[in-house]
Amino acid sequence: MSAITAPPTKGLVEIHNVHKAYGGVEVLSGIDLTIAPGEVVAILGPSGSGKSTLLRTINHLESVDRGSVTVDGQLIGYQQRGDKLYELREKEILKRRTQIGIVFQNFNLFPHLTALENVTEAPIDLGLLSKDAARELAQALLERVGLSDKAGHYPRQLSGGQQQRVAIARALALSPKVLLFDEPTSALDPELVGEVLDVIRDLARSGTTLIIVTHEIGFAREVADRVVFIDGGVVLEQGPPEIVLTHPEHPRTREFLAKVLA
Amino acid sequence: MTTTTTAPVAVADPAPAGAWNTPDPDRVDLGSVRVVHTRHWFRWTLSAILLFAIAQFAWSLFTNENYEWDVFAAYFFSEPVLIGIGYTLALTAVSASIGFILGTVLALGRLSKSVLLNSISWAYIWFFRSVPLVVQIIVWYNLGYLYPTLGLGTPFTTDFWIVEFPTVQLISAFAAAILGLGLHQAAYSAEIIRGGLISVDQGQQEAAAALGIPARKRLFRIILPQAMRSIIPNATNEVIGLVKGASVVFVIAIPELFYAVQVIYNRNSRVIPLLLVAVVWYTVITTILSIAQYYIERYYSRGSVRTLPPTPPQRFRQWAGAQWSRLGDDAAKAPPVVHGIPPLPIRADAGIDANEETR
Fold it and tell me: Is B173 found in the same domain as B76?
C-alpha cells in the first residue's frame, strides 16, 4: 500500500487494558490495541460502542480510569516513576499532544478566523514557526487539500466538505505522527463525502499513522490496513478488511455489517 | 390544468403532447396584472396620531418660553458644566476599566474547577450585587471610622511597622467613588463576561486544546473573540448605565455633570434649562457610545455572517452614488428601488469599493 521505500518508524500507538466510565456506566471495558507506525486502522462499531471515546483517550482529550495509552512509548497525560503515574502539568500534556492530530465530526474550525488563519494559529501560538513561515506552510497545506483559492474565506463561507478539508490541513500543520479521525464524514451531505475521503486516501499513503472512526464501510475496505470492530467497550474482532468485512466471525459483527450495508 | 382531461398514458397521440403550453384564453397572465397591497388602516391611523403628538411637542419646544433656551445656551458650554463632564467621563472610564478587568478575573474564577476560587468569586458577586451602590460609596468615603489607619506590618495585629497611612488621607472622595463604582461594576461585568464565555461552543475549547494551544492563548485568541459578540451589547449597556450612574457620587460632593448643574440651579433657580443641559450632554455621550458599539460589534462579527451588511455611511454612499448616476438619465431607466434600499450603483468603481469594504 505504501509507496515509500523506507518503512515509517514514528507513530506507534499502544493501547493497553483501557477502562473508562461515565457516571458509573462503563464505556470502555479493557481495550487492547497496538497500531504500528504508518498503519491505517479503521475502527467500526455501532453507536455508543465507545469508538469515539477510545479515539479521544489517545490524545488525552479523555483521561482513562485504568490502563494506559502510549505513543512511541511515551504516555500522553502522565509520567511514570516507579509504580506510580503522575498526571502531567497542562503545558507538558499540550506539548506531547501536538504529535497527535485530530479531525472532529463537526469540524470545530475557529469561525472568527479565515481558513489560512485556522491553519497558522497553532504553529504560531506554540512558537514553532514565524508568522511568514506559518503562512507559507498553511498555503501549501491548503493547496494539498485542494483549497488554495479559499485561504481568505471564513469557515461559514465554505461548504461542509471544504470546512473538513481545512480542518485536516489545520491538523497537519503540526506535522503529527498520528492522525485521528472522529467520524470525519458523518456531518456531511452525501455528495461532499467523496472530496474528504480523497484527502484521507492521499494521507494514507504518506506514512502517517491514521486511526479512523467511520461508518463508511466501502472506504474502510479500500484504504485501511486493518479493521477493528468494537462493541460494548471491547474489541470484538480485528483483521484485514477483506477478511473482517466479508467473512466476519463474530455474530455481532455480522449483524452490524448487515445493517450498515443494507 | 384541472380542466384538462387525463388521457390514458399508453396512447401515443402527438397532439396533446404540445397542448400543455397552448395559452388558455380564459386564463389571466399573472405577470402583467396590477397588485393591490393590503391597506393597513390601523397602522396608518396610529402613525397619524403619533405624528400629530410629536409635532405638537416640537412646536411647544419653540413656543413655550418656560424652556428658557437662552439660559440653556448660556450654560451649555460653561466651565463648571465642562469640568463636570470631565469628571463624569473620568469616573466612567476608570471604573469601567476596573470593572471589566476585575470582572474577567471573577468570571474565570466562576468557571474554574477549583471549588475555593469558584466560591470566592461567587461570594464577591453575591455581596456586591446585594449592597446598594450609594451605601458602598458612602462606606468607602467614611472608611476611616472603621479602620483609622491602613498599612503593612505583622499579620493579625494593627502594628503597621513597615508603612502606615491615615485612611482619610489614602481614600479621597474621588478614590472612594472609583472604588465604589469599580467594585460594583466588576460584579455585574463578571456575570456578563461569564455568560459570553459559556455561550461559545465547547468544541472550540476542545479543538484548541487538541492542537496544543496554551490555556492563555486559547482564552484570548479563540474563546474571548467569539464571546465578544454576546458580551459587547451588554457591556455597552453597563458603560452607558455607568455614565449616568456616576451621578450618584454627588452624595460625596464630587462635581461631576449632574452635581455641577444642581449647584448652578440651586443658586439661580433655573431648574428646567439646567436639567436640560445635563440631559442633552448625557444624550451626546450615549450617542457616541452607541456608534462605537455598532462598529465594535461589527468587528467581532467577522466570520459569523457570510457577508457583513454595509455600514450606514457605506449605505449612504451607495444611495448617493445611485442618485448621482441617475442624474441626466431618463427616469424610466432608473434602477428600481426595493424596500427603500437602493441597489448597488452602476458605476463599476463604486461597486468594487462597496464589495471590498463588506469583506
Answer: yes
Co-location of B254 and B329 in the same domain: no
Answer yes or no: is B66 within a domain. no
Q: What digits encode the pLDDT tens for the residues B174-198? A: 999 999 999 999 999 999 999 999 9
Instruction: Check whether residue B98 and residue B229 sit in a common domain.
Output: yes
Cβ contacts (< 8 Å) between B303 and chain A: which residues?
111-114, 154-156
DSSP code for B215: H
Residues B251 and B350 in one domain: no
Please tell me whether residues B354 and B244 are part of one structural domain.
no
Same domain, B296 and B317: no
Distance from CA of B68 to the nearest CA of A (A): 52
Q: The C-alpha cell of B30 is what?
A: 399573472
CA distance, residue A259 to nearest chain B CA (Å): 30
Spell out which chain B residues touch chain A, with contact meaning CB-CB distance below 8 angstroms.
Answer: 201, 203-204, 206-215, 217, 221-222, 225-226, 300, 302-306
Taking alpha carbons only, the member of A170, A116, A153 closest to residue B302 is A153
Q: Give the list of residues 6+ apart from residue B196 with CB closer than 8 angstroms, or none.
A: B224, B227, B228, B229, B230, B231, B234
**The total number of structural domains that make up chain B:** 2
Same domain, B222 and B327: no
Lowest mean pLDDT among B15-19, B92-96, B174-178: B15-19
Q: CA A19, CA A17: separation in Å to the nearest integer?
A: 7
Write the pLDDT tens digit of every residue in A169-195. 999 999 999 999 999 999 899 899 999
* In-domain check, residue B59: no
* pLDDT tens digits, one per residue of B228-251: 999 999 999 999 999 998 889 888
Domain identity same for B213 and B288: yes
**Domain encompassing residue B165:** 72-300
Indicate the pTM of the whole model: 0.80
DSSP B304-340: TSSSPPPPHHHHHHHHHHHHHHHTTS-GGGSPPPBTT
**Would you say residue B167 has pLDDT above 80?**
yes
- Angstroms from A107 CA to nearest CA on chain B: 9
In a domain, B14, yes or no: no
| Cβ within 8 Å, pair B304-A94 | no
At B159 the pLDDT is 82
